[in-house]
Design a protein that fits this description.
alpha/beta, 6-stranded mixed sheet, disordered N terminus, disordered C terminus, GTP binding, magnesium, metal ion binding, lipoprotein
Length: 273
């Protein structure tokens, strides 16, 4: 956990997440971290991994990320075992110009799943700016990511392409896994269609929608929206209640009397007995 300055009582972030970057050596994990702004760049606990913090804005919430870049060498497997237990997300990085680095993702995936089962993961193909030397196809990587339940991005630190997008997607998945989605759901921007429906329904009634100079499909959609809104509001504020006296009177009413009350009115009459 980050230590808060004593002079400032208010947190500088809303959520704090710990992410791990894993992959073979020389796939460019440090290149990905070097393009991120703000925060410490030295590991406070271990010299065997690169450490950096950054803050992103996700749906109006400030999310602070603690990013750990473990070396791809085998002697640092103990670091992965220790830090993967406390990680909320993992980026599996390979080099699109190195087929061996992509083949090694299986080994890293098994290592992470054995110590942090169920943690959200994102597959990242690095060095997209060297696509003319590509050895790993985009379709192959997408298929592999889908098979293992991961999101997939191809990034380029040199062009600053898809770096923050990959971290934002991993943050979103990590917060959803921890049940935090409901906390920022109210901050989502409404669509233009939603805003128009709200404005029109607020100024008229369900029956008044027919008088509007609009196409019939739009009128039908507005009616459905209005009925859904009114039903939700009435159910939440005024739930229907049936008195016990009425229930008893209906229960003790003979079936014949109900049939007679229905048949006493003429077929062309609108009067209900």
């Amino acid at each position: 956990m980050a230590v808060e300055p004593r002079s400032c009582q208010q947190k500088q972030y809303d959520y704090l997440l710990k992410f791990l970057l894993v992959g073979d050596s020389d796939v460019g994990k440090q290149e990905i971290l070097s393009g991120l702004e703000d925060g410490s760049s030295e590991s406070p606990f271990c010299s065997g991994s690169a450490y950096k913090t950054t803050t992103i804005l996700l749906d109006g919430k400030r999310v602070k990320l603690q990013l750990w870049d473990t070396s791809g060498q085998g002697r640092f497997c103990t670091i992965i075992r220790s830090y993967s237990r406390g990680a909320q997300g993992v980026l599996l990085v390979y080099d699109i110009t190195n087929k061996w680095s992509f083949d090694g993702i299986d080994r890293w995936l098994k290592e992470v799943d054995s110590h942090a089962p169920g943690v959200p993961k994102v597959l990242v193909g690095n060095r997209l700016h060297l696509a003319f030397n590509r050895q790993v196809g985009t379709r192959d990587a997408e298929t592999y990511a889908t098979k293992n339940g991961m999101a997939f991005f191809e990034v380029s630190p040199l062009c600053d392409f898809n770096i923050r997008e990959s971290f934002s997607e991993l943050s979103r998945r990590a917060l959803q896994r921890n049940g935090m989605e409901r906390l920022w759901r109210s901050n989502k921007v409404l669509s233009l269609q939603e805003l128009c429906c709200r404005a029109i329904v607020a100024c008229t009634t369900v029956y008044g929608i027919d008088q509007l100079p609009l196409p019939n499909p739009i009128k039908s959609h507005l009616k459905s929206y209005a009925m859904t809104t009114y039903t939700t509001m009435s159910m939440s504020h005024h739930p229907p209640r049936v008195s016990a006296k009425k229930l008893r009177s209906v229960a003790h009413t003979p079936p014949n009397s109900l049939d007679n009350s229905r048949n006493c009115a003429g077929r062309n009459s609108c009067t209900l007995s």
